[in-house]
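Task: complex structure prediction.
Instruction: return structure tokens for all chains below.
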Amino acid sequence: MTAPLTPRAPQAPRLDGGDAGLTRRHARDRAMTVLLATVMAITLAVLAWVLVYVAAQGLKYLGPAFFTQTPPGNPAQVGGGYANGIIGSLIIVGIATVISVPVGIAAAIAIIEYPGRLGAATSFVTDVLVGVPSIVTGAFVYALWVTRFGYSGLAGSIALAIIMLPLVIRGTAEMLRLVPVALREASSALGVTRARTIVSVVLPAARAGITTGVMLAVARAMGETAPLLLTTLGNSLFIQANPTQRMSTLSLQIFGDAITGFQSAQARAWAGALTLILIVLILYIAARLTGRRLTLTRS
Amino acid sequence: MTAPAPVSAAPAAAADLRGGRRYTDRAFRAAMLAAAGIVLLVLVGTAVFLVTSAWPALRHYGFLTFLGSDRWAPSDATAGSTHPNPYGIVQFMYGTGLTSLIGMVIALPVAVAVALFITEVAPAWLRRPLSSTVDLLAAIPSVVYGFWGIFALIPALHPVVNFLTSTLGKVPGIGLAFAGPFFGVSYFTAGVVLAIMVLPIMTAICREVFATTPADEKEAALALGSTRWEMLRMAVLPRSRSGITGAAILGLGRALGETIAVTMVIGNSVLAITTSIFGQGATMASVIANEFTEATEPFHLQSLFVVGLWLLIIALVVNVAGKLVVRRTRADIA
Amino acid sequence: MSLTDPASQVPSASPQPAPQGTTAGRIEVSGLTASYRRRPAFTGVAITMEPGKVTALIGPSGCGKSTLLRCINGLHMTVPGASVTGTVLLDGTDIYSPGVDLVQVRRHVGMVFQRPNPFPTMSIAQNVAAGLRLGPRQQRRAARLDEVIERSLNQAGLWEEVKDRLDKPGGSLSGGQQQRLCIARSLAVQPQVLLMDEPCSALDPVSTLVIEGLITELKKTYTVVIVTHNMQQAERVSDVTAFMTVNGPGEPGQLVEVASTRELFSQPAEKATVDYITGKVG
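Output:
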């Protein structure tokens, strides 16, 4: 039972020091609110700073010539554009998407629909792969492919596919997990094969979310530079659409021109940076708007 | 999750049908598991190929000699001599560690503050837009951050750094770490850029941790007569400690692997460790990016693979550790 | 006892000890309507809760009894979009009048919740002292903290069981003990009123009896208001019972009847009360 209680004691003086203490506490609360809001504002300001700066510099040079011409042979020369890089990016990322999306969706199906040791290991490895630095992936593909077949757009695609793979898997797996079990069971009860159920019932139900995951992966791949340095090396001079040859990408061209000392090259690079940011942001925002929200930063 | 048996039709027909179905099912299942296998192969392959490519240098110079020197001088290498190892990599580890640490130290308090603001202070309708906007920082490509870093950030940093070198840099002892001269590109600049790049992921984790604080405990704190900030300090922040730690570790892990933005603003001085954070240096990732395609000296390329191998190991260890901490936090919360 | 916003008042003397039988901790609710984003949870409630007595609020789910409780310490107002009209007088001062600081009100009106919620990262002693560490002048307080912790744990009937492990985590106690810890935590700041929102509904029967015994002791010192969905508990523990009900789904709740507990349960005045008590409704 309860211990004996002390009899009612006279009211002790309040221990918080009285009203002056309260004022100070409220003042501190207000100050912290202001501090938090300020830090938030600074963060937003930094984002705005980056976007506005790139836009301002890029718009100076952006024009139809930028999209249709290739860079001049001499980087110090004014004029030209990144047509080869843009085409190269589209081709390389396109091939990488074609490689990584089927494999990624299939692996996600393996994880969610056929649980077991392989599925669990794959899930763990997927998380681990996200943490592999992209330059290391580039070195891997160099050792695997470039040493045998030389620098090429294809090698770059393989590297990008590896980078995209865990993102596609994660996005797909999350969506598959959300499809209600009842849907699968209803399909099976009708006599539909497991395979058919997954392909015709579960995947379409998860379609919006899978699309979102793929778009985020594509956005990430468009922005990558480091692994491409080691695999496709870049081709600054002319449009190359054959993936078995060295190709240029938008990101490689920006990188190459940015670190030269020449104003003219840097001007092209700014236009390239603006283009790249626009592409990535459009993909990113479109991904957010379609279907359920998947965060790029979820780990 | 195995499929329940189909509703039986006439028994004889069912047996025929089931035979055919099982074949398709099995083939499909095999294909899916094969894809899973590919994922495993990718990770294993990465490790294996890195090791085999680094092997000639490792065998020639010995495993440990790479870690025993901070002098990277490929031009000193000859095919014959094994000692001393001209490919010392300590300064790259130092550069990676220092820049990532600076990035994490700057970003962590900001991430906590932003996450607190979003989850506890901002009105409900603002939460999603603010979160999405912060996440946009993660979408900006590395090369763009590097480019912006050179032309926009560095000029803005000059007055700040000049102030620091003239004050902290003069203090005996720690002054060495803050000494000038500052030429724009430096460990510190790279650290600031990294801070911006890892902020979104740290904020996202902190947001999740704060949002899962039980409303009960927050109300109990308020019921004791606390202001909102006191409630946060009593009921939200203390139980978020391990989550915030997890966010810090994962931010560190993300920063370790960044290549291009860092390469563009760190100065790429590969010769040795520079003691001042405002000095120039190189990271494991940046030296690989810079020298890989021009590595013609004996054992140069293989040594770069050694660097890559170490980078992989460190990045994996940090990322797995971070994940374990975050997962344990989530389990506690759940 | 000063409740007014410190920015607008002159510093007052320390409050005098209140002798037994005075009105310290008297709650008078009149014309109270509480809403969430303009949708009322209950309307037109008038009730007085006397010191030295336990007042029970009973009624079916959704009748607004918990909301009413949370209007007494202003916790209702922490929900975005929440509003009240009417008055809640604490010893003559309307806590919702513009000059009154609800943060200070909550020092005088404590609350215990349905699920025991000790702060998980704090020890038992730290939990009890949590409310005392707010604000400045921590040094002066430190010397008296041990006294206050012991006294509060005694009042909650928990001292003997935990006095040897005050530094153990709050979560290491059983459910009933945790709830008594939460009671001790609320009492440590020396409120005049103690609000309890279904404090035993998550506990086993033995712990429930312990806490009910505690309530009977506590009412000698505090004004206790308890929300309960357990009518037998209301009969056992309270002196005054208020019955609230709701006329239909989505309708705001109403206070139907308030009477001494004996009267309400033996000769209720309203038919709705009869229906609820006899189990026809509810």
